[in-house]
Amino acid sequence: TAPVTMNAFELISTSQGLNLSSLFEK
Amino acid sequence: MGCYPSKQVKTPGYEEPTVLAAETPFTVSEVEALYELFKKLSSSIIDDGLIHKEEFQLALFKNRNKRNLFADRIFDLFDVKRNGVIEFGEFVRSLGIFHPNAPVEDKIAFAFRLYDLRHTGFIEREELKEMVLALLHESDLILSDDVIEQIVDKTFSDADTKGDGKIDQEEWKAFVLKHPSLIKNMTLPYLKDITIVFPSFVLSSEVED
């Protein structure tokens, strides 16, 4: 099944908390 | 003995752009533009020239009270002095790692520290599972316990090539080089255009590069 082939680190890296581009929003 | 005129002090923790530019991929003008961004972030709740956790959360989530494991980890790594706030020098040096021109090795090492939740020098299985659960919670995604275990097991067995139950820095580096998308979020293209993102500052910049 699809989720089992998912890379856990890939999943984690999508966290909004790691998306620092929000800091640059005016 | 005469009196020396005191040097203009901007805020506690302020460091000269020339010093920060020498240590980071940023130019002096870019560091000055980052100071504009820093001033905005550090005055959003408490106007003291320091970024507090709530101000960081407000900037990331538009919500000062939104707790998030990963945002906490980023904040803690930026807070090099571990005094609960991010000073200007810490802000610029840490963001330097996210610069498109920063060495990939630095990005890989930073991500490792980010995911080494308990500062053991390794990413352990329990930590990986904790992060997966945090991400699922954050995203309102529901997966069965079995599927979560399988995802963690599969990833861990791929990354832990020495098979000792923990991922060390060497294994992490090899794993990221095999899956470069894992550190995609460690590069912020905005940083190359920071003086454009904050154009008002360019007009008042004192230093030409």
Mean pLDDT of chain B: 90
- Quaternary state of this entry equals heterodimer
Order of helices and strands of chain A: H
The helix fraction of chain A, in percent, is 10-25%
Largest sheet of chain A: none
Largest interface: A-B, 24 and 44 residues
C-alpha end-to-end distance of chain B: 38 Å
Mean pLDDT of chain A: 86
Number of helices of chain A: 1
Write the layout of secondary structure elements.
The complex is a heterodimer of chains A (26) and B (209).
Chain A: H1 8-12
Chain B: H1 17-23, H2 28-42, E1 51-52, H3 53-61, H4 69-78, E2 85-86, H5 88-97, H6 104-115, E3 123-124, H7 125-138, H8 145-159, E4 166-167, H9 169-178, H10 194-197, H11 199-204
Antiparallel strand pairs in B: 1-2, 3-4
Helix pairs in contact in B: 1-2, 4-6, 6-9, 7-8
What does this structure look like?
The complex is a heterodimer of chains A (26) and B (209). By secondary structure, chain A is mainly alpha-helical. Chain A is built from one helix and no strands. Chain A starts with 7 loop residues before the first helix and ends in a 14-residue tail after the last helix. Chain B has eleven helices and four strands; from the N terminus they run H-H-E-H-H-E-H-H-E-H-H-E-H-H-H. A two-stranded antiparallel sheet of chain B has the order 1-2. Chain B starts with 16 loop residues before the first helix and ends in a 5-residue tail after the last helix.
